[in-house]
Design goal:
The protein is 24% helix and 40% strand. The chain is an alpha+beta fold. It has a four-stranded antiparallel β-sheet. The chain has a two-stranded antiparallel ribbon with strand order 4-5. The mean pLDDT is 93.
């Protein structure tokens, strides 16, 4: 589980108590909820998930055209209860 730190997610965390995480592709919502509650000590209200497929990439090199693919991943948006805060920036 890796936090998503971007302008959009920072804005949502300040206003709506929502936090984003990149999670294991096979994880379900119950597993994600339990992992966040255990890791950060907050109570989770809801979990929304999004699946992203890998993109194909091509580039020209001296050896010729190289084709590859980026990894697929799952993103989870966690809504925590009012009053609970997850602090990604502290050095605890």
């Amino acid at each position: 589980m890796k936090p998503v730190v971007s302008e959009k997610m920072t804005d949502q965390s300040e206003k709506l108590n929502r936090y984003g995480f990149v999670v294991k592709f096979t994880a379900n919502k119950i597993e994600i909820k339990n992992a966040v509650e255990k890791a950060y000590g907050v109570s989770v209200d809801s979990v929304n998930t999004m699946n992203y497929g890998g993109k194909t990439k091509t580039r020209n090199t001296k050896a010729g055209l190289i084709k590859g693919k980026t990894n697929k991943f799952k993103k989870a948006i966690i809504t925590v209860a009012d009053g609970d805060v997850i602090d990604f920036y502290s050095n605890i």
